[in-house]
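Lecture 7, part B: from sequences to assemblies.

Below are the input chains for today's worked example.
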Amino acid sequence: MESMSVEQVKKSVRVYITVFVALMALTMVTVAVSTLHLSVVGAVSVALVIASIKASLVAGYFMHLISEKRVIYATLVLTGVFFLVLMFLPVSHYLDRIFG
Amino acid sequence: MQIPYTSTARPDTGLFNAKLGVWLFLASEVMLFGALFSSYVLLRVGASSWPHGYDLLNVPLATLNTVVLISSSVTMVMSWASLMMKEFKKYRLYMGGTILLALVFLVVKYIEYTAKFHHDIFPSTNTFYAIYFTLTGLHGLHVIGGIIVNAYFWGPGRKMWKTDPQRFTNRVEIAGLYWHFVDLVWIFLFPVLYLL
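Predicted structure of the full complex, as structure tokens:
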């Protein structure tokens, strides 16, 4: 980011506007889907998929992760691993039914 | 003592130091919110019944707040882009917009909270409200923190633009990283609490 030219920044601004429109559209989609009152599994899946797409857009374009340095990717991969462990801890007791 | 690599990139990381510092801080923030989301999952799968967020909470207000926060993320990134294009007046406009939108978010949250309190609904009411107030309360504190930092860069901190514009641009960039993270957390909080 430190070495971007004015022209590159101008191009990025157009991308930011597109991402903004996409985020707004996805927000409306996720609210609209919630009014359908799907099953728990269906509702959770759709909500999390849409939220993940929105989060990827924010992280990728607004936080410039799409073109970052390796040390940041390495930090985030490590964080992601620990985050997944944290999220699966509460449901890990289901493994007892399989292996227990 | 001079702090090293505030304006230029450190040769081995390719980053100015504060940027790596903020990313490490955000990594710790992921674990903080991750622990609370994990608690939410544990409480929800362990409960015999769990209410639908849309039956108990104000979805239109939360949708409005989602729009407000996403908009503030755009104005934040535009404020950084303005500095990169050496347009300081635009920077002030966009950063001011970011702060205003953040304040709107807090006002809407205040309306939501007070409506609940008027109906005698508190964190102690039940597990759902306990996790709702904890998650949105912690997120709200992060919004307040962001407002303080952004207000400093909009106000007194802007003097650095005249003495060291690159360092000031870098500061705004990493303040933006934090602000987008706050937006990112809300992107997950909104469906998890309000729509499921």
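Note for the exam: The helical segments of chain A are 6-34, 40-62, 70-88, 94-99. Keep this in mind when comparing with the next example.
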